[in-house]
Amino acid sequence: MRLHQAQSVLLMIDFQAGLLPVIEGGEAAIKEAAWLAGIASELQVPIWLTEQYPERLGGTAPALLDGLGQHEVWQKLHFSATEEAPFTQALAALERKQVVVCGTEAHICVLQSALGLLEAGYEVFWLSEATASRRPEEARLARERACANGAVAVTADMVAYEWLYRCDTATFKEVHQRFLKPRSAQAVTFY
Amino acid sequence: MRLHQAQSVLLMIDFQAGLLPVIEGGEAAIKEAAWLAGIASELQVPIWLTEQYPERLGGTAPALLDGLGQHEVWQKLHFSATEEAPFTQALAALERKQVVVCGTEAHICVLQSALGLLEAGYEVFWLSEATASRRPEEARLARERACANGAVAVTADMVAYEWLYRCDTATFKEVHQRFLKPRSAQAVTFY
Amino acid sequence: MRLHQAQSVLLMIDFQAGLLPVIEGGEAAIKEAAWLAGIASELQVPIWLTEQYPERLGGTAPALLDGLGQHEVWQKLHFSATEEAPFTQALAALERKQVVVCGTEAHICVLQSALGLLEAGYEVFWLSEATASRRPEEARLARERACANGAVAVTADMVAYEWLYRCDTATFKEVHQRFLKPRSAQAVTFY
Amino acid sequence: MRLHQAQSVLLMIDFQAGLLPVIEGGEAAIKEAAWLAGIASELQVPIWLTEQYPERLGGTAPALLDGLGQHEVWQKLHFSATEEAPFTQALAALERKQVVVCGTEAHICVLQSALGLLEAGYEVFWLSEATASRRPEEARLARERACANGAVAVTADMVAYEWLYRCDTATFKEVHQRFLKPRSAQAVTFY
User: Fold this and answer.
1) Counted domains in chain D
2) What is the pTM of this model?
């Protein structure tokens, strides 16, 4: 199954200031998530954030919040976002069945949320390079477990090009100029 | 599928004194298993041990038994625990459908037991880092084969947080203080 | 499922001059694809090429076109070839259900085309060593995702021997002499 | 699914003198296959060999034949043994549904035979360490493809202990003494 812009939600789990310093690869994960969030904003894909027990773990990291477009923040006490009724009801109300997940820690809150979403019938896309744990081995096993349960591992580039769908639109040119081209010395100029 | 405390059993296969000296990573496996067993005790998850032909291979290793809470020990002659009727009848009587398996050797007694449990309809969670063989390559292939048959590879941390379910309980605080926090220099203080 | 010569199409996605210089392993991918295309020609397996927005990305690379036998070229604006009606109609008209895919970039146009073909009911064979992306990690994840959706990863050698089916034919001897034997210092002389 | 002695056949594909010199890891594969064949003989598991076009590729390698117990040899011209009617009819007549496959080359004759057996309804066990190709990468991809189609990757040790089933029999003691114990400096004395 491919991603469709009109069916997608970008869900960023617990990218919190109190967690990030101990996460292996946490900064790179934030950077990757922020890049895709920029494209999501451009394409009107809803951006949702969760925060686990923010009184203790702090709010969402400034590295992600700075420059982030319109978004919603959901606080939670369960490790899985899907155990919080307001979140699940609001998500159902969006009527979008494809959820791109990322965040920290891969093997705790991201994994439990992904499994809960799969159980609820959503298509779950695991944004590998924007998902991290204290131990990289656990991030890897979390991805494998999510995928064994039906999630699909993706890169931000895959998501972007599937949302964009075709190359002869004004939207593609805009996103290409602002996001795709600047990202890499090897960006293809016109695709 | 996620793990639930009320549905789980922790099954530790053949961590026996006569086997451990030849197992690659045997000590680390015991340590991982013992850590999760401590949490299982705290959460009233039944802890079951098997011993293969103990007259020859010796009893369960002291490194696991020392400090282990309430548990049951099952002796066996078949490589798979599921071929021993008293074991399978008692397990059915528990009415818990999720079995977290670990032990030695991964590719013989743990694997055969896991496959037998899957055939009998249990959900099997393969505790990768607490499961070992003489040759690490065989432990890896055993995990792959178990997973190809429906088992789910997990880490002890995954299991612990799924059993704990939410962070605003007295149980979480107790387990966090005694098990989660001391485990790593990078433990998150409050989660 | 095995490949059958009479059911196969070789589909080469966007091996374009404007893309190749930035593709990691692009030259090796072209070489592998060209080798299999030679055998496809010999066995009357249709060879189809796509080109993404050739005004911008250039036509198919000369390294592939030079010496290429009879083939058809399809231009496209969607990243997935399956979103272009003339392509999908012509493919259906071939009445061949096995599509061997390769090309660049693995995680964009090859992946989207492969997923589209799978959705349309084709058997898709992912020619790993003839499929590449700017970042090798994305080529790997693209293959994993295609396979999780039902594609089958193959090598050119696998495809060749499945098309050839048996070793006691004049066709085998011809293909062996011209393609199999020269390929490697370790070629088996008579198979 | 576990292996059962009474349901198994050991099928060794094309371990031929003319192929072995160019196979990466060919000698180790033969050694592994010969070790398991010794146990198969002891347990009355039928041992079948195939030879591809022996006039050209030579007969089965002496390293495998020397000391090999009762066995049957099938010559073939198709790369897949399952395309030879006498072979498939005789296999069906055995009324054993579990086939342990190994041999050379992994990605050609072993793979095609394994896929053919799976299509015919057999359970196929891929003996990884006794299966090899000129390029190890192709042996790895062949295993992945076979497993994606339903085959199960196993080691010789897994097969042996599943066939043996329990440790308190005269057969186990005999096989342990002759095969399991001598194999490794780390053999467990009594299991």
Assistant:
1) 1
2) 0.96
